[in-house]
Amino acid sequence: MDIQVLKTCIENKDEEGIKDFILPLHPSDIAKALTELEDTEQIIVFKFLPAEIASDVLLEVDEHTRERLISSISDKELIEVLAEMETDDAADVIAELPEDDAETVLDGISREEGVEVRKLLKYPEDSAGGIMQTELVSVSEDATVQETIEQVRAKSEDVPNIHNVFVTDNDGRFKGTVSLDKLILAKPHLSVHDIMNQETVRVTVDTDQEDVAKIFQKYDVVTLPVIDADGKLLGRITIDDVVDVVEEEIFEDFYKMAGLNTDERVLDPPSRSFKLRAPWLLLNLATAFLAASVVKVFEGTIQTVVTLAVFMPVVAGMGGNAATQTITVVVRGLALGELEFRHAKRVLLNQVIVGFANGILTGTAAVIVAHLFGISYTIGILLFLAMITNMIIAGFSGTVIPLILKWFKADPALSSAVFVTTCTDVGGFFSFLGLATLFLKYGYL
Amino acid sequence: MDIQVLKTCIENKDEEGIKDFILPLHPSDIAKALTELEDTEQIIVFKFLPAEIASDVLLEVDEHTRERLISSISDKELIEVLAEMETDDAADVIAELPEDDAETVLDGISREEGVEVRKLLKYPEDSAGGIMQTELVSVSEDATVQETIEQVRAKSEDVPNIHNVFVTDNDGRFKGTVSLDKLILAKPHLSVHDIMNQETVRVTVDTDQEDVAKIFQKYDVVTLPVIDADGKLLGRITIDDVVDVVEEEIFEDFYKMAGLNTDERVLDPPSRSFKLRAPWLLLNLATAFLAASVVKVFEGTIQTVVTLAVFMPVVAGMGGNAATQTITVVVRGLALGELEFRHAKRVLLNQVIVGFANGILTGTAAVIVAHLFGISYTIGILLFLAMITNMIIAGFSGTVIPLILKWFKADPALSSAVFVTTCTDVGGFFSFLGLATLFLKYGYL
Lengths: 445, 445
Description:
homodimer; 445 residues; mainly alpha; MgtE N-terminal fold; CBS-domain; Tetracycline Repressor, domain 2; three-stranded mixed β-sheet; 6 strands
């Protein structure tokens, strides 16, 4: 795909050329092509897309581009595009619109779908209700296999990826599912009740999307019925949505640990990245000054033995790295459900032991290297002791801080890194310079 | 689930009690229960599981437990358990066995399945071949709809989650797919060739699993045919395997950035964590000494103005944090394919601008706070300049280093953090202390 060709067509206002280039592409490739164009070019190209393709493209581009493209078309065009989407996707797009526009659009899309989308908009974005779709095939439990097949036929145009038929009682309460292969193989006059799977797992509409993803993985299912508190069937979640949820949730942890706003993207303009990052960097500055104030206490000691200043970064840096290792392992364990509170004592002990062992190893290595630097054995011993202490602090705080965040129902990844490295900075400087001060006082240094 | 009940049953050798507790559970819940038992207790419980449940449980437990459980049963029992697994899972388990055992087991499982598993074992674990299964329903393109349905019937016992029927020509070359809902709706005498989807995406057997996952997400498919270089159909990948791949790949990035071996788990014994972490910490020690040697160059300056030692950690720490933010955004962009080499110049410029802007902001804040610390304006100016410089270094190295790793086909997440924070440590100390030395020389300090 040579984007230059498309750019030339746009420049020459060659409408046929634009269409020939863009229309044969898969929607996700069109989305990719758009990201390589200037804003004004994007809008020109987008106008050439028929509603059914435009709807797929809108779902593939990033939030900013989507906003820009939507504001470039009329409400009427937007309504056409949204009508082509599945209800869950349409709800997601409408949720991003300003309130007035959202109302106009909801009024515009066909009465039935408007009602469905309105219902979906009530649910939080990251709940089962927020990711479910209302398109599904359902039959009453007294339907026959033949009637069920007819229902599949009737809905097959509107419902993509059917996978399962959902069975409900006459009050709409979820009773079970029948997979399509069972349906193919069953005798036509049988009651669907007799061939359905009644043990199907289900989720209530307020289940967190992270838990939904875990259920999919645990039970190896492809679709999951979503019910309300009375057991009524409201919608279904399909596994392709779960892939996105899994990706989103893990990257969120990643971002939170690095102190990033989860909305930042690599191609964002600098003004946006600056704004999103600044608050966390300012918080970091506060913690950095906390570490600095520890050093300040020992200014006199450093004045006397200036070599200490040379090795301060080694103690703090190694502690920080060991801490990052520990938090990462702990956060991953919590995210995947491998680590639970009842393991806390064991994991804490393990991490402290690992810290101690690595402290001995790297402390010894540090002393040897420091000796090659021509440093006295006394400072070597200080370095050795401070590194062990700080590695133990790293293991301890790297385990305890994410667990505490989790205990208070906060996200364990949430800036764990900043809190933990504050512990290792403060702990590292305090142990290294504090020990040095003691050594000085008793005449060993 | 009260694990104490189970433990008591084991202690009392109450076989019925163990069975009553464990057998009604879902295999993944059994796996979870096992992790809470002592090693010897695990083995006792595992012996009570019928082969079909044992096979699911083996796939749910972690690698160490799996190894332990497998070595607790006879080859004959293991063969029975493996025969219950899908070919891709059986191949994964066998790949973990010592070579001799693997041979015995392969000879043992039924001739046909043994051949299939042997074929799968040839493919790298992280390729399409490594994650595909050979269980699928395929028909020749001259089959009728009726014949295809009969084929589904014949295979429905052995092939879970059929979703699609794969259509091949007489040489076994992949031609297209028919989804089950299409099959239900088609007239029985039609040729499957007329209703199949010929545009189905496919992957060759050596495709990297990360690319496979991207194709699933891009084309929103539930199964993907795997073909060889001649276009022959070898197997299929189902979307539930992709969820695991996505999770695995992202967490690998996470781990690599923190300098962790991707095999480490939160419940590993300390001896293992120690061994896995030590090499990276030693590498880190080397880079920490690099930073220390920069400080050493300026020992004289620190001796004269000891307050510099107090603010060294602020400059280095803020640079490190800004760098971590940049790398995380860049690594995520590369992992998701949002960032490509052609964006490099733009992203580099953006990140440097963000670094500069955040340098001005946090530098100013730092000067104000330093002033409250009672620090002279001259040192304030030094701090301000060094922080801006270091934030720019952070933006530059945080972008360039992952891109260079990617350019050389290495994983961009691979210890990016250690390289980049080395840059900000060295850069931070050099700019802060270097500027201070200049100020001193010209009498401003």
